[in-house]
Amino acid sequence: MRHVESLGNRLASGLARPATPRSRATGFEATLRHQEQRLRNTPTPTAANDKTAPAAASGEAPIYLGRISGENPTVSHLLSRDSRFSSQCWSIIYAKANQEKSFTAMQSGTAVYLDPKTKEITWEQQSPATPAVAASQTTTAEPAPDTPTAAAAQPLPAMATEEQAADPASTEFDAAMLPEMLQPYVGTPYSRLNCFELVVKGLTKMGVSYNGKGGLQQELIQRAINDKLPSNAYLTGEGLIAASGSPVYEKTVRPGSDPKAAGEEMFTELKEHLRPGQLLSFSTRRRGHTGVISRQGDTWTFLNSGRSDNTLKPAANRKGVAEEDLKAEIVSWLRRARSAGESLQVTVGQLNHGKLLAYMK
Predict the structure, then answer these.
(1) Phi and psi at residue 66, in whole multiples of 5°?
(2) What percent of the chain clears pLDDT 90, i.e. is strictly above it?
(3) What is the pLDDT of residues 104-114, one digit of tens each?
(4) How would you label 1-33 residue by residue, b for 16+ Cβ within 10 Å and e otherwise?
(5) Could you point out which of 143, 216, 294, 302 has its C-alpha 20 to 30 Å from the C-alpha of 196?
(6) What local confidence, expressed as pLDDT, does residue 262 receive?
(7) Among residues 287, 352, 296, which one has the least CA distance to residue 326?
(8) C-alpha 168: how far from its chain's center?
(9) Interatomic CA distance for residues 335 and 253, integer angstroms
(10) Which fold has domain 4-20+146-359?
(11) Is the pTM here over 0.70, yes or no?
(12) CA torsion, points 28, 32, 38, 43, in degrees to nearest 10?
């Protein structure tokens, strides 16, 4: 039996609200902010400094963003640290021209470019055996998407260099990469991977230690024991948010006669707080469900394992891992809560770098 109400009393006030910032930063937070400011102030070279720049599709000279490295393990790192594009980071990454790009396949040393007109991201990587080739000309064999073992074979973003390993405060966790870590699992039956296990799979692929001594699971179990609850009481979406992040939106509602209108209103209210890679939890008195927020073009989506009612594409399984329309999923959960005569608690949490450092491998 899940103890949603006990956990809800600790994690939510029952009203929608943005997270309240601390009035005073800890020494650790100050260190992170200092490092981020230093990186943002580092000048970024232009395409003119790199003679291997591929031709932009629009015909305009491509802009050189930098190279993938331990310090900049993802495209989002390069964009967010470039003063010219930091405010456009996610709109560029989710632009139509980039929706089919496999950014996680980039190796350290890969040069990354931006078409200033179309916002398309292109890249070139040099290996000892082959000359550099444009990303559009490179083919990569991909494992079957319906097995966890195939998903584990996907290349992962670099988490830290040797120098960073010596200084844990310098290691970064890019939560926005979490949806990409989960995409290979789409189609996996629920019997093999439930909603909580799916989120855990993504976190472990991002370098978070879950099982074993000192892992995130041990922390969740210990918290439940300390609160005199069953050991699995916090093995839920709300539990993950509390231990590894912080809520940015919380609301408990008792659905009225029009769940669709209530769902659309909640989505409008929630939309300004959404970021790819956030955790989302639905809870009623007797049921709970969790997953990861993602985005496809202009559509906010929900990567989860459960009954597939609102999938963007035809689902391989009626019940399993799927990417669903987020707004439609909110409406579905409001309808279920109304049918059961129960209130619905919705919690969205942002993964916190500082908290996750305690569980990084």
Answers:
(1) 135, -170
(2) 41
(3) 667 788 899 99
(4) ebbbeebbeebbeeebeeeeeeeeeeeeeeebe
(5) 143
(6) 94
(7) 296
(8) 21
(9) 12
(10) Cathepsin B; Chain A (3.90.70)
(11) no
(12) 170
Q: Which residue has the tokens 């689902």?
A: 315
Q: How far apart are CA 224 and CA 210, in angstroms?
A: 16
Tokens standing for 144? Answer: 């079957």
Q: For 160, list phi and psi in degrees, rounded to 5.
A: -165, 145
Are 348 and 248 spatial neighbours (Cβ–Cβ below 8 Å)?
A: yes
Instruction: With beta carbons less than 8 A apart as the criterion, state whether 359 and 208 touch.
Output: yes
Dihedral of the alpha carbons of 281, 282, 288, 292, in degrees to the nearest 10: -40
Q: Quote the tokens at residue 138.
A: 């490179």
Q: What are the extents of the domains in the chain?
A: 4-20+146-359, 33-137
| Phi–psi pair at 256, nearest 5 degrees | -90, -150
